[in-house]
């Protein structure tokens, strides 16, 4: 079955966002709708301040929309009155712009990843999840014994991908994950995200300013400021 024929794994319907209240309220995300099917990657593009990160945060369940709703796997994920269902956060995972945001500076990468994956899955032994995710992200397992300051930017970003993939999400949200990397490393890291998305049959929202990265996604969603 092709991706086009299967049911959407992520559905965003009429989502908007407003910052501030009362007289200071300001629309920061125009009504946005999107269906993403298993294996599909959507490049989210648009001018600075258009609302791309706001959409990423809503999809991650970090903030609720002002209107509309988000479904994950056909089940309500967030609405103006409710965030993600308890115990389901592993279903949508993020890859941040700055990978150091994903790790405790004085811990090894492996310790941060294990702890996050245990918390999200409720499992005690997460070794096989982490090894499989490292294989998918093409991260040498030995690097997991290092601290974030002891690896390159590209290696840290691959470790952040391991952290995001190991819990078993059905949606990945990557907000400018390659903007701090040189061109070759950026290409390799975005290629890893795209191949993982296809191989696992999950959905990817990839916020990017890089037209080359956007070109390699299944499609593009252009966000325009409200
Ligand atoms: N905490 C906040 N309080 C008030 N306004 C905010 C806040 N965070 C973001 N905004 C505003 O919301 C709008 C959308 O911001 P957002 O970060 O989603 O844009 P973006 O498209 O991701 O921009 P960029 O490409 O520069 O990262 C902007 O006008 C921004 O100034």
TrEMBL record:
InterPro entries membership: AAA+_ATPase, ABC_transp_ATP-bind, ABC_transporter-like_ATP-bd, ABC_transporter-like_CS, P-loop_NTPase
Keywords from the named record: ATP-binding, Nucleotide-binding, Transport
Domain named ABC transporter: residues: 10-225
Single GO MF descriptor: ATP binding
Keyword Transport: yes
PANTHER family: D,D-DIPEPTIDE TRANSPORT ATP-BINDING PROTEIN DDPF-RELATED (PTHR43776:SF7), TRANSPORT ATP-BINDING PROTEIN (PTHR43776)
Listed name of the protein: Peptide/nickel transport system ATP-binding protein
Biological classification of the source: Bacteria, Bacillati, Actinomycetota, Actinomycetes, Micrococcales
